[in-house]
Amino acid sequence: MNPYNYLxxxxxxxxxxxxxxxxxxxxxxxxxxxxxxxxxxxxxLVTFARINGTLEGQVTAFFTMxxxxxxxxxxxxxxxxxxxxxxxxxxxxxSLLKR
Amino acid sequence: xxxxxxxxLLPLLGALLVSVIPNDQVIRIKQAALATTLLxxxxxxxxxxxxxxxxTSYQFVQVAEWIPSFGxxxxxxxxxxxxxxxxLSVLLTPIVVLAGWNESEGGRWSAKVFYILxxxxxxxxxxxxxxxxxxxxxxxxxxxxxxxxxxxGGYGSGERAAAAVKFLLYSLFGGLLMLASIIxxxxxxxxxxxxxxxxxxxxxxxxxxxxxTQNLLFLGxxxxxxxxxxxxxxxxxxxxAAASATPGTSVLLLGVLDKVxxxxxxxxxxxxxxxxxxxxxxxxxxxxxxxxxxxxxxAIGARDIKRLIAYTSISHFGFITMGIFAMTTQGHxxxxxxxFNHGFSTAALFLVAGxxxxxxxxxxxxxxxxLQRVTPVMAWSFFIAGMSSLALxxxxxxxxxxxxxVGTFTRYPxxxxxxxxGIVLAALYILIPVQKALHGPTTPGNENLADxxxxxxxxxxxxxxxxxALGFYPAPLLNVINPASAHxxxxxGFSDPLPSEGAGK
Amino acid sequence: xxxxNSxxxxxALPLLGATILLLAGRxxxxxxxxLATLMSASSFAVGLYQLSAMLGRSTEERAISxxxxxxxxxxxxxxxxxxxxxxxxxxxxxxxxxxGTLIHVYSISYMAHDENRRRFFAYLNLFVAAMLLLxxxxxxxxxxxxxxxxxxxxxxxxxxxxxxxxxxxxxxKAFVMNRIGDMGLSFAIMIAFATLGTVSFVGVxxxxxxxxxxxxxxIGIMLLVAATGKSAQFPLxxxxxxxxxxxxxxxxxxxxxxMVTAGVYLIVRSNFIFDAAPTxxxxxxxxxxxxxxxGALVGTAKDDIKKALAASTMSQIGYMVLxxxxxxxxxxxxxxxxxxxxxxxxxxxxGAGSVMHGMNDTVDMRKYGALRKFMPITxxxxxxxxxxxxxxxxxxxxxxxxxxIETAFNAGGAKGIILGGAALLGAAITAFYMSRVxxxxxxxxxxxxxxxxxxxxxxxxxxxxxxxxxGSVTSGFLFAxxxxxxxxxxxxxxxxxxxxxxxxxxxxxxxxxxxxxAVAIGVAIAVIKYQLSEVAATAPExxxxxxxxxxxxxxxxxxxxxxxxxPGQALTRVLVKGDDVVIDxxxxxxGRTALGAGSALRTSQTGFARSYAxxxxxxxxxxxxxxxxxxx
Amino acid sequence: xxxxxxxxxxAQLSPILIVLAGAVIGVLIxxxxxxxxxxxxxxxxxxxxLVSAFAATVSIRKQAGVDAAMNSVAFxxxxxxxxxxxxxIAVLAVFLIADQENFTALAAAIPGSQEERESLQKDLxxxxxxxxxxxxxxGMLLFxxxxxxITLFVxxxxxxxxxxxxxxxxxxRRLMSQEAALKYFLLGAFSSAxxxxxxxxxxGYSGTITLSGIQQSIVGGSGNDxxxxxxxxxxxxxxxxxxxAVPFHAWSPDVYQGAPTAITGFxxxxxxxxxxxxxxxxxxxxxxxxxxxxxxxLVIVAIITMLFGSVVAITQRDVKRMLxxxxxxxxxxxxxxxxxxxxxxxxxxxxxxxxxxIATLGAFAIVTLxxxxxxxxxxxxxxxGLGKRSPLTASVFALFLLTFAGIPxxxxxxxxxxxxxxxxxxxxxxxxxxxxxxxxIAAFFYIRVIVLxxxxxPVEDGTSVVLPSALTAIAIAIAAVVTIVLGIFPAPLLxxxxxxxxxxx
Lengths: 99, 505, 632, 505
Fold this sequence. Notes:
Shape of chain B: globular
Mean pLDDT of chain A: 88
Radius of gyration of chain A: 16 Å
Low-confidence stretches of chain B: none
Strand order of the largest sheet of chain B: 1-2
Helix content of chain B: over 70%
Largest sheet of chain A: none
Helix content of chain A: over 70%
Structural class of chain B: mainly alpha
Number of helices of chain A: 3
Mean pLDDT of chain B: 87
Number of strands of chain B: 2
Low-confidence stretches of chain A: none
Distance between the termini of chain B: 60 Å
Number of strands of chain A: 0
Strand content of chain A: under 5%
Order of helices and strands of chain A: HHH
Number of helices of chain B: 20
Oligomer: heterotetramer
Largest sheet of chain B: 2 strands, antiparallel
Distance between the termini of chain A: 51 Å
Shape of chain A: elongated
Largest interface: B-C, 71 and 59 residues
């Protein structure tokens, strides 16, 4: 199978994730969309590793997973705190700061 | 240490001295400031005696590395042009201090701050004229805005904050345009023989520029100077600033700071961009002539005495600009002398107007009336200052104005002819306020105004004396100015037009 | 040229007087007038000394000069502060200091009750100094200093009583209109420098031999403009009538005898230019002819004695300008008329002052009448001046005016007839209005206000009048006898000076006869109209349109107001408004635009994280697109 | 496939390791030390580790090489300068953080809850901010020296994640603070996804993840240009997000406003230095040969950023937001240094970063001092008359504003001059002109604040200036002195940078 197809899929996933970030209100869902984007990137990396025949891409993908995990920790902490304060996980509600 | 550097440092030392005097000893503070400025004035006069007028190169030169990475030096030196302007600055400062003895009292801050600002400003005024390094010049050019800004905004009257901001923004805008040009010059110089800001070396750079580049760089400098000098239509900050500032600040602002603009036109616009100067001369002359007539008309229409003086200055700066770009020795010498003379006549006008206003608590011309009978000395001082402003022969401004006109006429007769109409308008804009304020019946509220006291007489006396003395005998200054003017004209590749009929029919 | 080092005293003495008086302030109240008079008198003495010295030298060496210092010296523009005393300027020096001293003496008494008499004398001294500088300066630029200096003194003296707004306005008007003339002088100097490369009299004279007619014509016309301003000639004559606001001695000295004649001096001094510039010369005579009629007509309608005399001055200077414009033939006569006029007109003004002094400062001649009995000395001196001005032989005016009329006729062709005719007509009108003044003031029945107690003036006042009257009687004869003045002045005008033209349209006798007939007609009409019929104490209102126009100075002020002043004021208002709205408005507009842009762009910061994310997404796409476009 | 044992040059990594060690010790202290001993020990550990890290950097400044960690990091002159700058800023930031008035007592407590009140009464401290700071600093130290894409990404996250948390620690207006944390986190994560995606494409283009490898591929020109394009674009999104360039700036005003002021200062100063350090390395080393691709786009971004930041700042009423927009504008100026792509651009950028970072920290330090009963006052209207109430504070703040505005005799001017001349040297006239123009606009609002402080009367609403704690005072003083000294005598630092700064490939 043409490895480039994985790139297209990854691109699609990235786009879906990005659009999801823009259109969804729930902070958790938004965060999940970002995770989707990260994974799209991972897929791309792995695909290129395959195409290029080098390992760096795969290594990078592993690092990404670790980093994403850290991000989840921090992110959820923030989201939970704000949920506790506001009783809402909608990111549109958090719009005191503007202009 | 170099004499010029020392001269520039003196006021700073004075400021340091003032800053250690306790706040409540206001008299001590004032005395210290006055003593410092007098000392500076005396030193400058001493320098004037030691100046070799015949030598057209810079004198009292000091060069020290400042920012070698950019080829920036601390470089100072004076030629006839800058010497005259430094003299003007340091002579006016003690007069301002003495004349505005109580000016600091209506301010937001203490008298101490006021005098520190004045002294710092004096240093910068000396520096801006003495700098022979373009970068150093720019630093002084911009930095001197700050003390003036605080002097206007902190000690002025009326809409002082707004006026100060307007002044600062206008000047900063011009300054930034100039910065762009300076950067351009810097880059061009670093590509052609090494980065430098030395004015003499930079004046060779025009050989390496395309005419478009040269025109653009010229405009950057010129607009900055045209804002400073104010040339129509970049003048609207001046009336506001002058009307809001204390009289003393106005004297320094119009008398000295604005001269940086016309000084810069000669020192930088002409010498750095000779071809562009030629290209733009017709347009600039048009603007200068408009300034002359326009300023005069607005002065005629002014109701506020300080605004009136500001507008007359716009007219006078038109003359100076015209003289500069006429490219004749007479025009140049006239313009330089005009800078000096305008400093003194405007100083006299502003100081007396300031005293009138502080006594009457109003700056509306119509509120005065009949002052000649109530306060004859004050009225006379104003009258003489006014006569100098309208360039009455026998007073200093006449010599310079006539030189400008005659110098312009030989090359640009039309401009000179239109400008000459300005002398009729000048009669109007001086005599109208004279009639309203000094003549006529004594207006109610003016009956008990006090005449000038001894301090004020001592302050205005030298100013009027200079105005009259230079009217009859301008040689001491012209001797210093002439070689410098001739040098500029020559290095621009010009020579004075010969009499058209001299060779016979 | 012979140099001297004492010329400067002529100017320095009165200048010193003025300086001392102005600086001393009230401290000089007691002795200020005496000092000023002494200074003026000593200047006169120096003048006499110079005259005698001059007479002692041969004709070629009579002119002397003094270089004081180098004044303005920039490259090729070299002007020394230098003085030149020649046959022409000595006439003026003596006139200025002589008449000036008399008027100082007169003023001691006339101004005795004014608390600011000291200041008045300071101004008078200042005037004398400036006027002397005007006639002694050896270059056009030095002349210019004196020229504006006398303008300043005139301004100060006209506005001496400036607490009255009208007087203050009059002084301002005088200064401003003079400045228009001064502008002409500036132009003349600039053109001279640009074309001839020099501005000294000697230099310009030298260079004028080689100069083109165009250049000389331009200089000449500009000098004429200068002259019209200072000498109240058409079309810059409007200020003179108002200038009568000044104290009467001022009118006598400045606005009759000396300053207003400076224009004539300028033209005569510049004879070398006008001789070579016929067009300019033609304009001079036209201006002279118009003004002499103009002034005379205005004079017929004035009830204010000083204004009537002022109009007469204007008219008489018209004669002088006419004479000066007639070229070599007329210069000497113009100067002669100038000198005789100096005597008789100053005398008459002093007489008028004397009358006012006795009549509670009333100036309206309709409130006078029959003063002959109460002011005999004034009547006699005034009367002698009157006879002189209307040109009755052998009084001074007869000689000088007759010669001008004669020269005018001799100008040749239609020009001669027109100019001569105008001069003749002017003589008739002069006779009419001066007789009117004489009759209304001295010989007609009395029409005083109730509180008037006319009396003769003290000796300090009538003595100067008497001396001037003697001058009015004798000077014409002295100057004209054997063409004495003409010969004296001849070196100034070059070889062809004073030579009478070959062709005579009329013989001198015929001209004199015609003139006398004209005068007789004028006097007769006046006698019939004013002596033999009732004169109303207030000016009648239902008069013809011509009288009304004449009373309004032939509408000169209305014209100036409509054509210059109101449009000027309107322009000023427009510019003031425009400065605020358009120029400053544009500046403020830039500020507002920035603020507006800021406010508008601020709204992009909605506070919603999702919109920020959208912005990032769009930015990313734009970035890709941007790079893509460049790459392709 | 052969795995080689990694050889680490611990000396060159020592600054990072020291900071990380400090952070770990901090965590341990958090876990085990008694509550009341935590604050002082944490502060001590932080300062100690930062100072020793600084000493370590200085000691290894002469070393250069890419072998510190198997070609993953490069240590060179530029790296040293940037790391040193970050460490200096971090020390000053810790001084500010030490003033715990700014921080919530218990981050986990719900705003307004009983729990929160109790924690406040007990005077609890969020001492975890210290280890967080150290972690962030470690990331910042790594970011600009990373030479492979993995290290870059990891460093980016290490520096970002603690900052997300720190943004939410404010004591007052906690809802806003938490909102700031949320926005910062979500958008930050969003942008790092782009960053990672970019990494993927660059890897796809070149088959390598080292910067030098990418550069070689570009020179070789064998790869698929579409991948390069996408790689550069996506990577730039992540980087430009961090520096706050338009249109990736939107987070910064909100986060700057919501975060505790000390953290804002740290973030604004240090993050910018680190991010620009990385950008410079990436663009100068990896992408230099593809400049024709990215430069036009970056020029446009720079222009829009300068203008947008300046224009929007005009209308701001909150001092922290205003500083945020001002920092956006400055990001634009700094991009000019990236675009210059020459040695002087690098030198200028480093100087600018140092000068700007220090001044920014100083400015935010001042903001922490202006308080009322409810904490910091950031509404500009309530700053009016500050100059009257506390002249020194106002003057120092004015000094920082002037340096932001680029007035001569302040460090900002030298920075602006050098960066614009570098940009113009490389031919970017547009950058020069826009830079000058937006400087003029920027001057508008800096001056407005000065007017507010000095020329308006104080409002009596309980706003006061608290006496700064000794550490804050030291931080402010250092910032002010550096600002002035670099304005007047920039030569030593400039020549040091000039001789030191280079990128190893």
